[in-house]
């Protein structure tokens, strides 16, 4: 099978590999579609560490092609997606219900082989069937949508809230839709790329702002004089993260959702955080949210069709990071057929 293998930052190659054999509790999945995300880009640029070499990619869907002897529920031909994060179920974090913080966490495309390939294997417990009305490409949004569901919970969004989302890439647009569904009265999206602002409006944003030509704080306070109840930083941009805390109202919540560089540092005034009682929260992975994300996709309440900007074949995977983040892009979707 063909596979996109990252050997070190900046070094990705399309190579031929043997199709993996599932162990007794694993399934072999023939991959149909795999999305490209900010984590993949950070792996390529070196901003996020990985266990090299590794097949990149973790947002995907496909069909069960073979099963191990101890697989109980899934069958050959089932349409599926996965939670790409394997945990130990033994460490203290797992035992306290914080599996996504597992000290032995192994994530596809980062620590173990991922899904930008013809096939992959995953333990049955991490594999989920998808409804017939959800296409493989739509199902490839399950993992990022599950992460956004967790982010929404970390933000504690309530009915009537004013929410500010900084960044309208794929994740920002998923967060926009979830905040609307959660009952936010105002969902304000700041994004420098005009095309992405238009998509955010399609996806329910009540207001969009251009940070290159507008004063975000000034425009925000025209809409809510005290600032936002919840601020999501969804770009993984250090300068934006540093500024994000000053868009919050007193007693508000700031969620650093975007994938920041591992060695990045920002400077904020702790007096301001203490004086305004602002809560700063991280949002990592997708704990216990995969099934809910699939149900949201199946219900049609979350739109993903307008988030796919490019379709790329596995043979052309090396082009991915030449176009990633350019003004006409949103989600890049890699097809294996």
CATH superfamily of the largest domain: Medium-chain alcohol dehydrogenases, catalytic domain
**The first-level CATH class name of the largest domain:** Alpha Beta
**What is the level-2 CATH architecture name of the largest domain?**
Alpha-Beta Complex
Largest sheet: 7 strands, mixed
Q: How would you classify the helix and strand content by structural class?
A: alpha/beta
- Helix segment tally: 11
Q: Domains counted in the coordinates: how many? A: 2
Q: Whole-number average pLDDT? A: 96
Identify the overall geometry: globular
Fraction of residues in helix: 25-40%
The name of the CATH topology of the largest domain is Quinone Oxidoreductase, Chain A, domain 1
Strand content: 25-35%
Please report the total strand number as a whole number. 18
Run of helices and strands = EEEHEEEEHEEEHHEHEHEHEHEHEHEHE
Rg from C-alpha positions? 20 Å
Distance between the termini: 11 Å
**Ranges with pLDDT <50 over ≥5 residues?**
none
């Amino acid at each position: 099978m063909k596979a996109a293998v990252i050997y070190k930052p900046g070094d990705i190659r399309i190579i031929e590999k043997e199709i993996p054999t599932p162990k007794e509790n694993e399934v072999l999945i023939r991959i149909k579609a795999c999305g490209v995300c900010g984590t993949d880009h950070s792996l390529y640029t070196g901003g996020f560490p990985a266990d090299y070499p590794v097949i990149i990619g973790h947002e995907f869907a496909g069909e069960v092609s073979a099963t191990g002897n101890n697989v109980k529920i899934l069958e050959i031909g089932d349409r599926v997606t996965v939670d790409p994060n394997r945990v130990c179920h033994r460490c203290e974090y797992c035992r306290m219900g914080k599996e996504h913080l597992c000290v032995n966490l192994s994530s596809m495309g980062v620590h173990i082989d991922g899904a930008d390939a013809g096939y992959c294997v995953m333990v049955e417990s991490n594999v989920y069937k998808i409804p017939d009305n959800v296409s493989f490409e739509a199902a490839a949004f399950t993992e990022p949508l599950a992460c956004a569901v967790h982010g929404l919970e970390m933000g504690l969004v309530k009915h009537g809230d004013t929410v500010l989302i900084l960044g309208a890439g794929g994740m920002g647009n998923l967060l926009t839709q979830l905040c609307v569904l959660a009952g936010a009265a105002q969902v304000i999206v700041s994004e420098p790329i005009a095309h992405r602002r238009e998509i955010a409006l399609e996806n329910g944003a009540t207001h969009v702002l251009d940070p290159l030509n507008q004063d975000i704080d000034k425009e925000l306070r025209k809409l809510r004089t005290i600032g936002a109840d919840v601020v999501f930083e969804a770009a993984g941009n250090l300068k934006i993260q540093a500024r994000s805390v000053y868009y919050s109202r007193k007693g508000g919540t700031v969620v650093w959702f975007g994938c920041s560089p591992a060695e990045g540092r920002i400077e904020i005034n702790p007096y301001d955080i203490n004086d305004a009682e602002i809560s700063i929260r991280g949002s990592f992975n997708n704990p216990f949210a995969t099934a809910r994300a699939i149900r949201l996709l199946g219900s049609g309440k979350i739109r993903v069709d307008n988030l796919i900007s490019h379709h790329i074949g596995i043979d052309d995977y090396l082009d991915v990071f030449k176009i990633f983040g350019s003004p006409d892009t949103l989600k890049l979707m890699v097809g294996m057929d």
